[in-house]
Amino acid sequence: MFKKLFKEFKEFAFKGNVVDMAIGVIIGAAFGKVVTAVTEIFLNPILEALPKMENGGTGFVGSLISFAGVLVEFLLTALVLFAIIKAINGAKKVGKKPEAPAAPTTRDCPFCCSTVSIKATRCPNCTSELPKFKA
Hints:
3 helices; 59% helix; mainly alpha
């Protein structure tokens, strides 16, 4: 029983989606730290240098500056994660062959233009004899 449970857990844990999600979370956390540092070092000083209205930039204006910093940080994080995921998905597609189109299962009756099965020898609508289907 334990062996079967362990096997099911192993199949779940090592499926592509679970591993991909774990890698994404780790990369996202690490990249979040980088974006936070860039925001604090470069963007916040620029935003704080803007003219302040009252109380030395505290109050409403200070809150707007803090919000702008957080918003820029979020947008940068989302943009870079989008680029990373797009690159990973593009790399996955490189090795894949395009799927062959599925074999047709229906055809048109040459007499009444209704759709009939490929295996049909007579049209169910106009009862005409159908020529053999050539793929």
